[in-house]
Amino acid sequence: MKKEQKETLKNHVCEKIGELKASVISYKRLTKAVEPDNAIGRLTRMEAINSKSINEAALNDAEYTLLKLEKALKMIDNPDFGLCRECEEPIPFARLMILPETDLCVACAEKITG
Q1: For position 51, what pLDDT does the model report?
Q2: How far apart are CA 103 and CA 17, in angstroms?
Q3: Is residue 97 part of a domain?
Q4: Which of 25, 37, 43, 68 has the most CB atoms at less than 10 Å from its CB?
């Protein structure tokens, strides 16, 4: 990977990390316990509980992706970064821009996931 591409990718990953950190904060606010309240009816409370569980799933996904992006950012200067862990061929730059945390090329990812 060229030096300019690494810099572009670093900046992109840093932006995504910032966005995810903001999302995590927002999801944490949305996943607070649903307090029983006399002002809410049973259906509204059920909707609030359902919404809370959806937000918890989104929070878990965001935190997991954040960890993977932070790991990718640490590894970006490693000479092996950007090489597929299966075939050891370079992962296309466009794929890394979409999924900077990936360690598989498209062909190997398709083989693994079917």
Answers
A1: 86
A2: 18
A3: no
A4: 68
Contact 13, 73 (CB under 8 A): yes
Residue type, 38: N
Q: Are the beta carbons of 62 and 23 closer than 8 angstroms?
A: yes
Distance between CA atoms of residues 74 and 6, nearest Å: 12
Q: What does the pLDDT average to over 4-32?
A: 94
Domain encompassing residue 39: 3-81
- Residue 29 lies inside a defined structural domain of this protein: yes
* DSSP per-residue letters across the chain: --HHHHHHHHHHHHHHHHHHHHHHHHHHHHTS-----TTS-HHHHHHHHHHHHHHHHHHHHHHHHHHHHHHHHHHTTSTTTTB-TTT-PBPPHHHHHH-TT--S-HHHHHHHH-
Residue-wise pLDDT for 20-50, tens only, equals 999 999 999 988 876 666 555 666 777 878 8
